[in-house]
Design brief:
Layout: H1 4-16, H2 22-34, H3 38-56, E1 60-66, E2 72-79, E3 82-90, E4 115-121, H4 129-141, E5 147-151, E6 157-166, E7 178-181, H5 185-203, E8 211-217, H6 223-232, E9 235-238, E10 250-253, E11 269-273, E12 281-284, H7 292-302
Parallel strand pairs: 3-8, 4-7, 8-11
Antiparallel strand pairs: 1-2, 2-3, 4-6, 5-6, 9-10, 11-12
Helix pairs in contact: 1-3, 2-3, 3-7, 5-6
């Protein structure tokens, strides 16, 4: 994210381009500079950064707009004859560092099962033979959500392995496991709960007669998965549904997601705006509900990859 000087300079440029009013610029800078505590200051800086991203996407922005019933909107975005509300929440994600996994785990990818597998590795070198053997035996029969603690010969915990999500077969139709580095599973669940609280807090600020977009800002590459689970729910096997053709098990999402079970029905689009990496993501609840201009603007503002929205779309 830009430093304070760069944020101020960018806001002055936006005023010159008539993308934000001078009054809003002064208010944002005053709130940033006068914030009594660091967390509040960081939240305002985050709000300014997101406002600038929408301005750089070609929109005009109003800040801290008071809507009906006295509800405050962080940003009101004007783009292509369309006006929508944006609620910005700072996502503080501090996962454990994820270094490259030892090459010994690469052999597990030959197991013919269609899963994404997360490995938390605390060891200092290559995994011993009995560790890989235990991991292989576990992966041959485990289901989504199952987790195995890995231990050395002295029974000391040196990591864990977990079935994280389903994975489509390769182009030839052959299922295979993909191994990725992962942090502590309990820590990840706590982050998902934190993101869920931010989503619900933003929802309580929704205003009528406007499309309302939630933007969670911050975090590194692992934050995308945190937001995905907070919006859609964690991956689970669904024995109450028929599996797709040529598959034995149906996969779905659990109830921890904001959009599950027709809850929070006025929420149609959530965006993740990373501050440390260039590419963010958007999630669309239903097709045909949100004006295309809103989707396109949000996509460009957070740096989401262009293309079909089906992978992140949920109908509830």
């Amino acid at each position: 994210m830009r430093d304070d000087h760069a944020l101020e300079a960018a806001l002055f440029d936006a005023v010159a381009e008539n993308a934000i009013s001078e009054r809003d610029m002064k208010d944002l800078l005053h709130r940033m500079k006068s914030a009594p505590r660091a967390p509040r200051r960081d939240a305002v800086r985050c709000e300014i950064e997101v406002a600038l991203r929408f301005i750089e996407a070609g929109s005009r922005v109003r800040a801290e707009v008071t809507g009906p019933q006295g509800r405050s909107v962080d940003l009101e975005v004007h783009t292509r004859d369309c006006i929508f509300a944006v609620h910005v929440k700072r996502l503080q994600v501090s996962p454990l560092p994820l270094g490259p996994l030892p090459i010994g785990f690469d052999g597990l990818a030959s197991i013919p099962r269609p899963y994404l597998v997360g490995v938390e590795w605390l060891g200092s070198g290559e995994p011993e033979g009995h560790v890989l053997a235990a991991a292989r035996e576990f992966l041959l029969g485990a289901r989504i959500g199952d987790r195995l603690v890995l231990r050395n010969t002295a029974s000391r915990r040196i990591g864990a392995i977990e079935i994280a999500a389903p994975r489509p077969p390769d182009p030839e139709g052959t299922p295979s496991i993909k191994i990725v580095a992962a942090g502590n599973a309990n820590h990840a669940k706590a982050l998902v709960r934190r993101a869920g609280r931010l989503l619900r807090r933003a929802y309580r600020q929704f205003v009528p007669d406007r499309e309302n977009v939630i933007v969670l800002a911050g975090g590194g590459p692992s934050a995308r998965d945190v937001v995905d689970r907070a919006v859609l729910g964690g991956h689970v096997e669904r024995w109450d549904q028929f599996p797709p053709r040529h598959q034995r098990v149906a996969h779905g999402r659990n109830e921890e997601g904001l959009w599950q079970e027709r809850r929070f029905e006025r929420s149609h689009l959530v965006a993740w705006c990373p501050l440390a990496i260039p590419q963010g993501a958007i999630w669309i609840r239903e097709s045909g509900v949100i004006p295309p201009a809103v989707i396109d603007t949000a996509r460009r503002a957070v740096g989401a990859a262009p293309g079909p929205d089906a992978p992140s779309r949920i109908t509830s």
